[in-house]
């Protein structure tokens, strides 16, 4: 029979041993992912290139992404987040094939500059309706590439309007089902609403686009604040699994943050 003292001794030993075992299991999981070439975070940047975005506005979006990706704050967040893979999609009407910038593992400033340069070099060839479903579907296809794996998968959408499809159009990618497919696969969708034309766009994104654990929407009034808002958004996305609490609980300064 186990005595009372024996029971106490067992509990004391367990209190020391169990945390060590848990830490070992967690470290083993990280090591397994690393050995398999898996990322801690896989992030797809999905930029609105539909007809409502002028060439000047699209260039401003690109400038914002380049500035944010290569900023000291975001570079520090890349390092803190662990192993991070990034890809990008320029999306618009379903009549246009989404433009893809393939995955790149960000291991430091040089990789971030390389990826940002690829974004700047890519000549826009997309326009038409604001078919948000096209952007999400293209991002999902990137996540589904053979051998692609990550602990967290995040789609970062930026845009200036609600989903719009011409009447009787049959070849569009419906937003609701493709969004649900992403959520079913454990993907988080966050959004940055450029509210220059649609004052209630952030709320629309919150209800119809964003989703998943810790999902959020940030709002910027116009392109003037886009790079600053995007920098904050990227830092939240990269570190959401490390900081605890909802990303919107962290300071956002001049920009509104809505939990999904």
Question: Secondary structure elements and their pairing?
Answer:
Blueprint: H1 4-35, E1 39-48, H2 55-69, H3 72-81, E2 84-91, E3 99-106, H4 109-121, H5 132-143, E4 150-159, H6 175-184, E5 188-194, H7 201-208, E6 216-220, H8 226-243, E7 256-259
Parallel strand pairs: 1-2, 1-4, 4-5, 5-6
Antiparallel strand pairs: 2-3, 6-7
Give keywords.
45% helix; alpha/beta; globular; single chain; seven-stranded mixed beta sheet; 260 residues; 7 strands; 8 helices; Rossmann fold
Q: What can you see in these coordinates?
A:
Helix 7 (201-208) links the parallel strand 5 and strand 6. The protein is an alpha/beta fold and 260 residues long. It has a seven-stranded mixed beta sheet with strand order 3-2-1-4-5-6-7, sandwiched between helices. The N and C termini lie far apart (54 Å). The longest helix is centred in the N-terminal third of the chain and has 32 residues, at 4-35. It contains eight helices and seven strands, in the order H-E-H-H-E-E-H-H-E-H-E-H-E-H-E. The protein folds into two domains: 1-35; 39-259, 3-Layer(aba) Sandwich (Rossmann fold).
Quick recap of the structure?
Helix content is 45%, strand content 20%.
């Amino acid at each position: 029979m186990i005595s009372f003292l024996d029971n106490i001794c067992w509990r004391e030993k367990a209190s020391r041993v169990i945390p060590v075992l848990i830490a070992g299991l967690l470290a083993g999981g990280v090591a397994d992912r690393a050995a398999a070439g898996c990322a801690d975070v896989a992030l797809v940047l999905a930029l609105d290139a539909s007809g409502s975005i002028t060439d000047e506005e699209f260039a401003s979006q690109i400038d914002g992404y380049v500035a944010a990706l290569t900023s000291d704050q975001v570079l520090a967040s890349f390092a803190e987040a662990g192993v991070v893979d990034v890809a990008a999609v320029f999306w618009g009407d379903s009549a246009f094939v989404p433009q893809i910038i393939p995955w790149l593992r960000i291991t430091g400033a040089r990789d971030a500059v390389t990826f940002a340069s690829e974004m700047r070099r890519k000549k826009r060839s997309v326009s038409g309706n604001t078919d948000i479903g096209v952007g999400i579907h293209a991002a999902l296809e990137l996540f589904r590439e053979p051998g692609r794996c990550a602990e967290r998968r995040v789609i970062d959408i930026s845009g200036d309007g609600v989903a719009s499809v011409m009447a009787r159009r049959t070849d569009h990618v419906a937003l609701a089902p493709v969004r649900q497919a992403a959520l079913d696969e454990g993907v988080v969708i966050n959004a940055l609403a450029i509210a220059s034309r649609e004052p209630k766009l952030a709320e629309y994104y919150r209800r119809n686009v964003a989703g998943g654990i810790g999902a959020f929407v940030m709002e910027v009034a116009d392109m003037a604040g886009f790079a600053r808002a995007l920098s904050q958004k990227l830092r939240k996305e990269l570190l959401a699994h490390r900081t605890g609490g909802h990303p919107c609980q962290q300071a956002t300064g001049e920009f509104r943050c809505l939990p999904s």
